[in-house]
Design brief:
It is built from five helices and three strands. By secondary structure, it is mainly α. It has a domain of about 120 residues: Nucleoid-associated protein YbaB-like domain (Ybab, Chain: A). The chain has a three-stranded antiparallel β-sheet with strand order 1-2-3, with helices on one face. The radius of gyration is 30 Å and the shape is rod-shaped.
Amino acid sequence: MTGGNELGELMLDPDEAQRKMDRWAAGLEEKAQRYAAAQERTEQLRLTASSSDGAVKITVGADGGVTDIEFGNKARTYPLEELSRQILQTMHQAQAGIAGQVAEVMQESLGDEDQETRALMIGTLRSRFPEIEEEEPPAPPAPPASSADTPPPPPASREKRHEAPDDEENSPW
């Protein structure tokens, strides 16, 4: 902030006051251009992830929204529940890189300018799209119990049950 003396000096020299205001305005304009360039580059970011077996490939933008989904031939062999799990897991994997990519764009575009604002923004992105921790593969299923230990199945009921309508009409596949 300017001191009282400096303000008085500017009042005595209106040309110097104009030059300082012009430099200040030019600095603001340059800063606005750097931020606009960073925003444009951020909006163009695309992050892609693939499932480990290549069944699902998902691309997201910097806002986390899905921009593309591709299915490999292996996806046809999955039950729908497993395919859904693969889609979500792959989407989260792609989204996990957003904060790092945005931070890189901001560093390249803005340098060390506005560290506090940048930290707040990157922190928000990291909380929305956290890094994926490596998961351990699931444990193999327990071996089936011997037939001597398992009780016989209950007898089939002869009552007619009301079946749910066939889901074929609502299937997206």
